[in-house]
Amino acid sequence: MNATPPETGAAAHFRALESLYASAPINRLFESALTVHELGHATIRFEVAPSAFHAAGAAHGTLYFKMLDDAAFYAANSLVSDRFLLTTAFNLHFTKPMKEGTAQAEGRWVSGRRRVFVAEARIVDASGEECARGTGTFLRSHIPLGTLPGYQG
Q: Which pLDDT tens digit goes with each residue over 91-108?
């Protein structure tokens, strides 16, 4: 019987962040999955469902913000293994309406490693076209990641 050894180091931290994302109650409202694949990079695949549409039949800005913020946040928090980061500011730009289907938010750390982090994200739809992009500022909090029930690191 071959047992897979437990992940350690950065890989363990990445899996724990993915678990933290999955455990957040807000994510029960959205069909989505986070993957942290390397330091400073995170991807969220999600479904754009009609339940998230505004009156004109496309995704409401709430969905754009949530996915962009989360992708940028987790890209930044992949560099921090002891504390939870907090979003302090986020700017977003809508470039194309999102219709029903699969989309992906791609987050990337830009700068900062001590107290303040800057990360950006973009959303692409199933055809690969960009629908939105944003940049966020994230602050190291006093909340230890290890105390959060969903963080299994």
A: 999 999 999 999 999 999
d(CA 18, CA 117): 19
Token pair for 113:
């490693």
First to last CA, the chain: 25
Per-residue CA distances from 93 to 30, 145, 153 (Å): 21, 30, 34
Looking at CATH, the fold of the domain delimited by 9-147 is given as Thiol Ester Dehydrase; Chain A (3.10.129)
Helix, strand, coil percentages, rounded to 5, for the chain: 25, 40, 30
Domain residue spans of the chain: 9-147
Q: Which of 72, 63, 43 is nearest to 135 (CA)?
A: 72
Cβ neighbour number for residue 118 with a 10 Å cutoff = 15
Which pLDDT tens digit goes with each residue over 10-63? 999 999 999 999 999 999 999 999 999 999 999 999 999 999 999 999 999 999
Look at the pTM and tell me if it is higher than 0.85. Answer: yes
